[in-house]
Structures are given as structure tokens and as C-alpha cells.
Amino acid sequence: MLARRLLLYIVTAWVAITANFLLPRMMPGNPIQTLIGKITNTVTPEEIRAIRLSFGLGFHQGLVAQYFTYLTQLVHGNLGISITLGAPVSSILREAVPWTVGLIGLSTIFSFAIGTFGGALLGWTRGSRLDSLIPTATFFQAVPYFFLATVMLLLFGSDLHWFPVLGAYSPTVTQGWNLAYIESVIRYGELPLIAIVLSSLAGWMLGMRNMMITMIGEDFVLMAVAKGLPRRKVIWHAARNAILPSIANLSLAIGLVVSGALLVELVFNYPGVGDLLLQAVLNEDYPLIQGIFLVITLAVLAANFLADIVYLWLDPRTRTVAAV
Prior knowledge:
Oligomer: single chain
Helix content: over 70%
């Protein structure tokens, strides 16, 4: 079963890579002219050709030749050179991706863990006083996350000075694996992380609560209660089956971690992939756009494949089907 799924993901990756190649070339504008306009207005045809060759754009070639050139460079790990930044796309992504993965990844893990645990508890104790938490959670979910981030930035950052504002670390510290830098990164990341967790918590919580309520009425749970199993074990058996839809959603959320939270990164001036993608689109930076979308696509596919493996581990019925 996993082998078939892996083959499907490989084919999907090839289709996505092809679409990733075609979409930027369907956009209006010419990246070479954009770059030349930023340099000078007097450029000879020979210099234009040299620029094309140096950036590996291949726009002097036909579309098919460009495609095979793109695939060849991709196999060798060459994502081209950013038109606007003048640096290899791979090195630019190596700098931006860790910031986004650190912020959005931790936010996703925290919101999933807190929401899933809270949803299981709310589902098991439905009708209790704990249900008063639901309106609060849904309120934060209803508020646009970038608006929530802006309010929190102004209130807790600018007015109360509880958190630092703008950026990913203090400009007074030296970058590197030193305690001052790590503490600064954590402090600057706290407020955007809290904003993202609050805005996404209700989705995990309500989804898990509804599934838990459904599972409580299943025969295997009623049988476990009738046998007198400890309450903790009964809740675990119910939650283990109720969490399966959340695992599927988590795989998508993890896959999209690399794409970043564009508006939150803009609000907090955070140097992540979301902000980088916006700048690449505004500047018609085709190589950078392609590199970002490629990383996002592969991350989503890898996360979905990981979710399939987790499904096999959590649900024995899928292993039986696969064996048949």
C-alpha cells in the first residue's frame, strides 16, 4: 500500500514541478527587462544575453528546451539565481526557511497539541462547565489572524512593552549559537506565535470534540466501560480513533508550514518565506518564485506521505486492508 502511495506522490510531484515551471512564465512581464530597468537604461543586446545566461533563465530558448534545462538544474540542486537579490535561490531559502519553520512549525504543534487534548476533554465531559471555553476559542478563530496579530502587537508590544516588536531578534546581539542570540530569537517569536496559536486553536479543539462525542457512543467504548476498564484507558481508546481526521488535517498543516503566514510575517516584519514570496511576486523574480513553490510542494507531499504512515500505526484496520 505504501509503495503505491509513494508512486502516486512521485507522479504528483512531477506534475507539480511541471506546473511550477509553467505558471511563472504565464505571468505578465519580463524578468530580464525588470532587472535591466533596475540597473540602467542603456544595455546592449550582448549584455542582455549575458544576463540571461548568468541567471540561467534560458528565455532565449524555446519552452521545451527551457523545461529540460530547468529539470536538469533541479536534479543537480540548482534552483537558479534570484533576479532581484542576485544570490542563489537555494542559499536565500536556507536563510528564510528556518525562520518560518521555527515560527509556524511550533505554532502548529502547540495549537494541535493543546486543541486536540482540550477537544478530547471537552468531548468526554460535554455539558460541563468546561464548555464555556468554546465561545472564547471560536471568537479568536472568527477574528482574522492578521488583525489579531496587529492588535496584539500594538497592545502588548507598543503600549505595554511586554514583548519586543518587529523583527526576529534584537539588532544589538551577535548572530550565532550563543545564549543572548537564542534568548532574543525566543523573545521576538513569542508574540507572533501566540497570535497564530490563538487564531487556529478552535479548529483543532472543535474538530476533536465533535469526533470524541461520536466515538463515545461507539460499541467498543461502551464495551470498555461495561468491562470496568480504568477511565484513563477508555478515554485513550476513544481518543485514538477520534484523532484520525485531525491527523489528516495536521499533515496538511505541517506541509504548509514552509509557506509561512504571510500577513503575520508582514505585521511583525518577520524574515520568513511568506514575506520572501511576496517580494518575489512583486519583483517578478521567476527563479525565486519557482524555488519557493517547489519547496512548499515537496513539503506538502512529504507531510501527506508521513500522515499515511501514521494512519497505518494508529488504525489497525488500514493495515488489514493493505495486507488484503
